[in-house]
Amino acid sequence: MLNKQGFHIAVMGATGAVGQQIIQTLEKRNFPISQLTLLSSARSAGTKLKFKDETITVQEAVPESFEGVDIALFSAGGSISQKFASEAVQRGAIVVDNTSAFRMDPEVPLVVPEVNEHKLKEHKGIIANPNCSTIQMVAALEPIQKAFGLKKVIVSTYQAVSGAGAEAIQELNDETNAILNNQEYKPAVLPVASGEKHYQIAFNAIPQIDTFTDNGFTFEEMKMINETKKIMEMPELKVAATCVRLPVETGHSESVYVELDREDLKVQDLWAVLSEAPGITLQDQPEEQIYPMPATAVGKDDVFVGRVRQDLDEKSGFHMWIVSDNLLKGAALNTIQIAESLIKLGLVTK
Amino acid sequence: MLNKQGFHIAVMGATGAVGQQIIQTLEKRNFPISQLTLLSSARSAGTKLKFKDETITVQEAVPESFEGVDIALFSAGGSISQKFASEAVQRGAIVVDNTSAFRMDPEVPLVVPEVNEHKLKEHKGIIANPNCSTIQMVAALEPIQKAFGLKKVIVSTYQAVSGAGAEAIQELNDETNAILNNQEYKPAVLPVASGEKHYQIAFNAIPQIDTFTDNGFTFEEMKMINETKKIMEMPELKVAATCVRLPVETGHSESVYVELDREDLKVQDLWAVLSEAPGITLQDQPEEQIYPMPATAVGKDDVFVGRVRQDLDEKSGFHMWIVSDNLLKGAALNTIQIAESLIKLGLVTK
């Protein structure tokens, strides 16, 4: 049932892996919607999708698609956002963009509501949703930073293929099937669909997500480094990342080492802060073999933190293991939480 | 063809994942063998295994099995090594033990031939083969330490199930098949066969290898920390590890951050050292998407290093990605290289 008191929402990239999650999450959270416009490229236009009791036909996006839209949720790749976001803003919509197109634009707030919701007030039409692997890390690090001060972060990621879209999920499944049945399979999507080389992801680990920059880090690694500093408003924070793709369908994991401002802390101090933090579930009972894993985090809203332990050499150093559903908190859910915050703060006008 | 000028070799745990690799590697390297005795528990005794043109029947191990044996290669679990290693030594054999039973014993050399072959001269009958994840890391770090001095290591591992034995490989395959066919599967082996809880490894990542110690690190993590210091003879080296099991059959990967003694180094300096190092293959051309992966390292002898890059904040800091076949250099090959070094150094008497 649509709600006449609600907002006109558009979802750009409605047929993609994240687009589908956005539609499901809007429904699950009973987001106040008076009209839902589903948009895609010409190729996917005509697809029929369910929302509550309605069947909605996906339309090909044109600039006029955004007439009357209050909030447009973009998740169709950076070039589509570059092309259509300003068209949507000109027509009065607020754009929440889930691509990397505007994230480092100093005019665009980059928001994880639990961390920096206040930045929404500075928006000029576009708000950027951070990279999936960044969101879950800053959600866990912000309460630690607030309580104890953060100096340094070194992260190694264990990322699911769904971060590379529905085609990558299909590739993982088809390739795994082929290998188990001793059949040939020619990878065509991972690590980077547009790249020259493609590698097997089934039963493998690929230390490349996105393309390489000149400094030897990938763009995915640089996103984690730069976005973390921007969201946490800590340009001097030391951050390093190694990003790795795994044969996991959904759920990103991160092995994170931090150095804090204080040397007098124990694991219990971090537990106390994390167990009270919004959007965080502490899963940390090693004696009971309780720790976060992608298989148990999938489909859940929270960021799960466990394996918290003090470094054996650095008194200010702690290690932890952070897992979240990359399609939910890492993408669709955070996008919708931004929209909810915009409404709560009175920043959306109908 | 057995070689009358060779040595009498015994393989303890001949039917296990590593035992099989030991037999194949002895054959591939044309190890000088006059007699090959294959041993196992009562359960696997009677199995017939091929070695060159011979078919050898696996016998149940008893103390007398080691009469006349020159070198006994043990890979049947710590409790079997505890029970039989001294029996073998009393009968004149040198034991190369691939379990954790004796690794931290100050009387027992812990050897990676490329790193500390000289320690073999101090042996008192037993020589320990390090943990798989440690071997490949120290093989890559030793040349860097020698050239530039090493201060600190932080490693996150991406470990294959074959490190947990043949049953874990079977579990990964059966479970993956079951999930792809929407069938139920009840895990019984991973993460720790003897543990109370077992978790799905297919399409998942489990941040537990071996059981937990009181400090929150697992025994696997403590093995990496303590064995690295012992092998590199650097008790003051700062080492931290997070060990994670992946749905990969064979090939361990490691995301390694190091801090060196010097601040004037560039990636090219590390490349120069690694490309000359014994047992190391540098695979580091990001612009060509060339980097190590388990799928390309499996079945190969070397340790592969790539993704070498300088930290963006610490001038003395470098990141790298180290991959090797955990059943070869991580286990069988290193065991046999130790035996070859013993012969080369004149330490085996017939």
TrEMBL record, chains A, B:
Record-level GO BP terms: 'de novo' L-methionine biosynthetic process; diaminopimelate biosynthetic process; isoleucine biosynthetic process; lysine biosynthetic process via diaminopimelate; threonine biosynthetic process
Any Pfam family matching the protein: Semialdhyde_dhC
Function: Catalyzes the NADPH-dependent formation of L-aspartate-semialdehyde (L-ASA) by the reductive dephosphorylation of L-aspartyl-4-phosphate.
Gene Ontology MF annotations: aspartate-semialdehyde dehydrogenase activity; NAD binding; NADP binding; protein dimerization activity
Homology family: Belongs to the aspartate-semialdehyde dehydrogenase family.
Catalytic activity: L-aspartate 4-semialdehyde + phosphate + NADP(+) = 4-phospho-L-aspartate + NADPH + H(+)
Pathway(s) it belongs to: Amino-acid biosynthesis; L-methionine biosynthesis via de novo pathway; L-homoserine from L-aspartate: step 2/3; Amino-acid biosynthesis; L-lysine biosynthesis via DAP pathway; (S)-tetrahydrodipicolinate from L-aspartate: step 2/4; Amino-acid biosynthesis; L-threonine biosynthesis; L-threonine from L-aspartate: step 2/5
Subunit annotation: Homodimer.
Record: active site: C132, H252
Residues in Semialdehyde dehydrogenase NAD-binding domain copies: 8-123
Tree of life domain: Bacteria
Keywords from the UniProt entry: Amino-acid biosynthesis, Diaminopimelate biosynthesis, Lysine biosynthesis, Methionine biosynthesis, NADP, Oxidoreductase, Threonine biosynthesis
Binding site residues for substrate: Q159, R245
Descriptive protein name: Aspartate-semialdehyde dehydrogenase
Gene: asd
CDD domains per UniProt: ASADH_C_bac_euk_like (cd18131), VcASADH2_like_N (cd02316)
Annotated NADP(+) binding sites: T15, G16, A17, V18, R43, S44, S162, G163, N326
InterPro entries (UniProt xref): Asp-semialdehyde_DH_CS, Asp_semialdehyde_DH, Asp_semialdehyde_DH_beta, NAD(P)-bd_dom_sf, Semialdehyde_DH_NAD-bd, Semialdhyde_DH_dimer_dom
Amino-acid positions noted as binding phosphate in the UniProt annotation, renumbered to this chain: R103
Known EC number: 1.2.1.11
